[in-house]
Design a protein that fits this description.
This protein is α/β, with parallel strands linked by helices. It has one domain: D-tyrosyl-trna(Tyr) Deacylase, Chain: A (3-Layer(bba) Sandwich). It is globular. Strands 1, 2, 3, 6, 7 and 8 form a 6-stranded mixed β-sheet that branches. A two-stranded antiparallel ribbon has the order 4-5. 36% of the residues are buried. It is 25% helix and 38% strand. Helix 1 crosses helix 3.
Length: 152
């Protein structure tokens, strides 16, 4: 799995002119599912995101997680994070999971966040979406399960 995580003061996702998900202070998580991903990876990535200390404490240090501050998550499916641009001019998405498995693991990830007690809003899987956000900081983090979970 790959995730681009942005700390936000507010965010929403719009499909066909209708807001389908919105949060206040929290994290926008653009999430891609890879061909080799499984339930364990989805659960561990959700745990990593829930506990990632990217919010400031009283001394101004990034020492507070989403779990600590009671923030929300807006999770948006983003298969293009697996775009391979090493050859040619058009990205290849062969490392991205197929739509059925991708949706299943995306939902698994969202459920795992909810199990932690995090309020989760989502986009619509496979829809054309407009994501609106007010980046806070700005703070943007890249997570790749091949890198961050192999050290655990």
């Amino acid at each position: 799995m790959r995730a681009v995580i942005q700390r936000v003061t507010e965010a929403s996702v719009v499909v066909n002119g209708e807001t389908v998900g919105a949060i206040g202070r929290g994290l926008v998580i653009l999430l891609a599912v890879g061909r080799a991903d499984n339930d364990d990876i989805a659960d561990r990535m959700a745990d990593k995101c829930a506990n990632l200390r990217v919010f400031e404490d009283a001394e101004g240090k990034m020492n507070v997680s989403l779990l600590d501050n009671g923030g929300s998550a807006l999770v948006v499916s983003q298969f293009t994070l697996y775009g391979d641009c090493r050859r040619g001019r058009r990205p290849s998405f062969t490392e991205s999971a197929g739509p059925e498995e991708g949706e299943r693991l995306y939902e698994r990830f969202c459920s795992a966040l909810r199990i932690h007690g995090i309020q989760v809003s989502t986009g619509v899987f496979r829809a054309e979406m407009s994501v609106r956000l007010h980046n806070d900081g700005p703070v943007t983090i890249w997570l790749d399960s091949d890198e961050v979970l192999s050290r655990r």
